[in-house]
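Researcher: Batch entry, complex prediction.
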Amino acid sequence: MLEIKKLNVSVEENKILNDLTLSIKTGEVHAIMGPNGSGKSTIAHTLAGNPNYRVESGSISFNGSDLLDMEPTERSLDGLFLAFQYPIEIPGVTNASYLRQILNSHRKHQGKDPIDAAEFLKLLKEKSAYLKIPMEMHSRFVNTGFSGGEKKKNEVLQMDLLDPKLIIMDETDSGLDVDALKVTADAVNQMKSKNRSLIIVTHYLRLLEYIKPDFVHIFQNGKIIESGDSSLASRIDKEGYE
Amino acid sequence: MNKVSKDNFKQEKYKYGFVTDIESETIPRGLNEDIVRIISKKKNEPEWMLEWRLKAFHRLKSMKMPTWAKVEFDEIDFQSLYYYSSPKGHEDKPKSLDEIDPKLIETYNKLGIPLNEQKMLAGVAVDAVFDSVSVATTFKGKLNELGVIFCPISEAIQKHPELVKKYLGSVIPVTDHFYATLNSAVFTDGSFVYIPKGVRCPMELSTYFRINASETGQFERTLIIADEDSYVSYLEGCTAPMRDENQLHAANVELVALDNAEIKYSTVQNWYPGDENGVGGIYNFVTKRGLCKGKNSKISWTQIETGSAITWKYPSCILRGDNSIGEFYSVAITNNYQQADTGTKMIHLGKNTKSKIISKGISAGKSTNTYRGLVSFHPKAENATNFTQCDSLLVGDKSKANTVPLTENSNNSSSINHEATTSKISEEQLFYCLQRGLNEEEAQSLIVNGFCKEVLQKLPMEFAVEAQKLVSISLEGSVG
Ligand SMILES: Nc1ncnc2c1ncn2[C@@H]1O[C@H](COP(=O)(O)OP(=O)(O)OP(=O)(O)O)[C@@H](O)[C@H]1O
Ligand SMILES: [Mg+2]
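Model: C-alpha cells for the complex:
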C-alpha cells in the first residue's frame, strides 16, 4: 500500500525528516508516537502533498504509483485521507454543503452520479447519529467556531463519508472527551478492513488500547528510532521517551 | 513539487460575448445639440423633455470628467461615439411578442432570458433593453391590474408625464457631475416603475441590459417610485459582446421611497470584462442614488459586480425621512486587468436613520479593487447609526485592494461602527479542500463563495444560484 524510502523533507530552511523509511501493507494499522516536534505531522502532511513541505530526496510509492508525482487532489481521489491535527475553518460555507461537495467530487471520480439531496441527507443523518454529531452542526459553517472536539469528530465524519484506502489520523484523539474517544475508536475499528491501511499518530495509549495497532513506531528527530508491537506503546506510556 | 501549473485550468470564455447580426438604425456619430434633438425626436418626446435634455447638454459643456477614482484609462473621445442604436423596426415602442424580430428573441434565449411569458421564470417580469431601446416588457397586463406601472422610461415620458416630471432628476440633479449630466442629455432607455400606495408588488421586476452595436454608448435611465406603504424588489442584469474596443455604459438610476415604502434593488453586473491582457471591455460609469423621502422608508442596494473593464459606481442612499433605513451589500470581483472603484454614500439627514454597508471585494490577477464610501451625519440626524464592514480578499500576489472609507459627523448623538479586513485566500483552506478531493478551482470557488455569502444571500432567490456560479466563473484562470 505505502512504501516510504529514505525520505528527507524540509520546511522553509529546516530539515525535518531524515532518511525516513517505512513500509505499510494493505490491511495494517500502524501507530506513530513521538515527542512534540519530532516530525509526525510533517510526514502526515508530506503524504497528503502539502506544498509547504518540501521533499529533498527519497521516494514514496502508493499502491504502485509514485505518490510524489501526484497532486493533492489526485491523492485524495485515489483514497488517501488525512485527518488534520488542526482542522481548518471555512467561513460562509455550511458544513452540509461542503460535505456533499467533497463526497460528490469522489463519486464523480468513481464514475458515479452526484448524490441527490434527499439521499445525502439520509446518509448524513445516519453517519452523524453513529458519531453522535448533532445535525445542527451541519448548518453551521465548516469548522467555524466548532469546539476542538467537534472539529475532530467532523474529521472522522469526513473520513467515514469518503471511505478512503489509506487513513492518516494526526492526533485525532487529542481534545476528545472520554465518550467521544470511545465513539471515535469504535468508528475507526469499524473502518479497519483488509482493504484499508491506517496510520494513527497519537500521544496516548488510550486510543491504541481500543484500536490495537499491528505496529508501533517511535519518532525522534525526523526518523523512526524504534518499532515494535502494541506493547511498545504501553512501555512508552509508562517510561516516556527519555 | 506539488505546484499546480496554470495550464491545468483553461479559462472559461465569457459566455455572453456573441454579437447579434441584426440591422440597426443609428444616428451620426458625435455629441452636439443636434444629436440631443435627434434622440428626443426618435423617442417622440414632448417639448418639456427636450428642453430638460438641452439644459443638461448646455451645462455639460463646462463640466469635466471626474478624476478622483483609482482607475486608469485613456481619454474617451465623446465625439467619436454613437449615441443611439436601435434594431430596425423597434424604434417606436415595444411590440407584442410576435412582432419582435426573431433574432432578438433568440438573443435573449441565448442569454437565458426567455421573453415568452410561458417560458419565463415564474414571478419575474422583464424589461429587455437592447442598445438604445426597450424591445419587450413582459407581464405588463398582470401588473396593470394592481396599478403597478412597469414600462420603458421612453413610454413613461409619454404616458405618465406627471410622474416623470415630478421625480426625474429629483434624486440625481441634472447638474450633479459629468456622467450624470451627460446621461441626462442623451439617455435612451431604461425602465420606469411606479408602485401605487399600499401595493406589495407580487413579482420581481427586472431589466436586462444588452449592448450589441459597436462604437455605441449605452445611456440607461431608470426611475423607480414606491408610493406610501408599498414594496418592490427590482433586479437588473447586463451583458455585452466581446470586442477589442472599450464601450461606455453610463447609467443614471433614481429611486424614491415615500412613507413606509421599501425598495430592494439588486444588480448582477456581468458586462464584458475585457480579455486576459486587458484589451476591450465595458467602461461602466454609473450613478445610482436612492432617496428615502418618507418616514420609515427603506432602500437596499445589493450588487454583484463581476464584469466591466472599469467599474465606477457608488449606489447611495439619502436618508431624509425620519427612521429611514439605507443598506448596501456588495460583492465586487476583479480578475486579469479589471479595475473597480465602487462603494456607497449614506447621507443621514433625518432622525433615527440607520445605514448598513457590507462590502466584499475580491481581487485576482493583476486587477485593482477599491472600496470607496462616505457616511455622513447631518446636524438634524439625531441618533443616526451606521455599521460598515469592508472585507477584501486577495487571490494571488499581483492584485491590489484598497479601502477608502470617509465619514463626516456633524452631531454628537450618532454613531459609526466600522470594521475592515484584508486577507489573502488562505493556503491552508485551499490545501484542506484539496485534501478532500476538490480541485484548485473548485476549492477557490468554495472559499470565495463562503467569503461572499452574507451578500449573495441578499439576492432574490431566483438569482442567487446564478450569482454563485458567476462568482466562480469570474475567478477562473486565476489559480496558480
Ligand atoms: N512552517 C514551519 N516553519 C518552521 N518550522 C516548522 C514549520 N512547521 C513545522 N516546523 C517544525 O518542524 C518540526 C516538526 O514539526 P511537526 O509538526 O511535524 O511535529 P509533531 O511531531 O507533529 O509535533 P506535535 O506532537 O507537537 O504535533 C518542529 O520543530 C516544528 O517547529
Ligand atoms: Mg503534530
